[in-house]
């Protein structure tokens, strides 16, 4: 494959960014997308130029560390993490022809400031989780595994929500840059289990307040978040969040 790359370059969060264009030839279709970027960076390094900074860790679709907007789509043309995208997926895209330009950008959201090039600071998601606090448990000997019964439908739904890896694709895809799918997933998975009940309603208030403080937008039910989620977190977890928030207000729960 012969391709052209249009990549966002930005020195740090305090400087303005811009696009730079590169050409690559002889790219094999079996390469992963990140391997293709490695090839570009090896060439830039040999030429004495600054390599393109991007995030990745496991490269197995588990950690959520990687994340790029590729031709306007969070994680690219397949529903998976960027590290699981291969150049054959690009080649098989009907809108792509050999020699076409691939545009690569970072997640774009107020809550995700660009640190360098394609790397953004996603610590806002960590702070939302931290705002949820801890769960109350009795210390002592470990209880028998089946001593606290959990209904199968609730267990399955909690597992669906807990599959969220915090990659931030939902934010990148949302026109409002909302992190509501992420926040709802974290609230739902604890709210359906016995261990999450004592702080259930103060948790939803605290996490939603932190979500707004981080600069994320509100949810208007467009659905782009669930459409790009690599772990298929269902959009109706947001309904669960809204129900918990309504109950919290009915109960008169306030932030401590």
From TrEMBL:
> What keywords does the record list, in alphabetical order?
Iron, Iron-sulfur, Metal-binding
The Swiss-Prot or TrEMBL record lists the needed cofactor(s) as: [2Fe-2S] cluster; [3Fe-4S] cluster
Domain 4Fe-4S ferredoxin-type per the UniProt entry, residue ranges:
155-185
Pfam families, A to Z: Fer2_3, Fer4_8
What's an example GO BP annotation here? Answer: respiratory electron transport chain
Domain of life of the organism encoding this protein: Bacteria
Give GO terms: molecular function aspect only. 2 iron, 2 sulfur cluster binding; electron transfer activity; metal ion binding
Q: Does the keyword Iron-sulfur apply?
A: yes
InterPro entries reported in the protein's UniProt record: 2Fe-2S_ferredoxin-like_sf (IPR036010), 2Fe2S_fd_BS (IPR006058), 4Fe4S_Fe-S-bd (IPR017896), 4Fe4S_Fe_S_CS (IPR017900), Beta-grasp_dom_sf (IPR012675), Helical_ferredxn (IPR009051), SDH/FRD_Iron-Sulfur (IPR050573), Succ_DH/fum_Rdtase_N (IPR025192)
Q: Which family does it belong to?
A: Belongs to the succinate dehydrogenase/fumarate reductase iron-sulfur protein family.
Q: Which NCBIfam families match?
A: PRK07570.1
Put simply, this protein is called: 4Fe-4S ferredoxin-type domain-containing protein
Source species: Actinomyces graevenitzii C83
């Amino acid at each position: 494959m012969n391709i052209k790359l249009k990549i966002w370059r930005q020195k740090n969060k305090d400087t303005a960014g811009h696009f730079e264009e590169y050409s690559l030839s002889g790219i094999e279709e079996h390469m992963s997308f990140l391997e293709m970027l490695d090839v570009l960076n090896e060439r830039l390094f040999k030429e004495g130029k600054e390599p393109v900074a991007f995030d990745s860790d496991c490269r197995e679709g588990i950690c959520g560390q990687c994340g790029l907007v590729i031709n306007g789509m969070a994680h690219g043309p397949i529903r998976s993490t960027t590290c699981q995208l291969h150049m054959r997926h690009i080649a098989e895209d009907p809108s792509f022809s050999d020699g076409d330009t691939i545009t690569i950008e970072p997640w774009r959201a107020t809550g995700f400031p660009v640190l360098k090039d394609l790397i953004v600071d996603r610590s806002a998601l960590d702070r939302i989780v931290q705002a949820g606090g801890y769960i109350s448990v009795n210390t002592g000997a470990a209880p028998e595994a089946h001593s606290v019964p959990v209904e199968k439908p609730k267990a399955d739904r909690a597992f669906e929500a807990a599959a969220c890896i915090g990659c931030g694709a939902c934010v990148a895809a949302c026109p409002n840059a909302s992190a509501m799918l992420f926040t709802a997933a974290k609230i739902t998975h604890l709210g359906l289990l016995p261990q999450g009940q004592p702080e259930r309603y103060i948790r939803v208030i605290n996490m939603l307040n932190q979500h707004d403080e981080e600069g994320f937008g509100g949810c208007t039910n467009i659905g782009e978040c669930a459409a790009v989620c690599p772990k298929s977190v269902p959009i109706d977890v947001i309904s669960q969040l809204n129900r918990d928030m309504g109950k919290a207000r009915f109960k008169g729960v306030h932030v401590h």
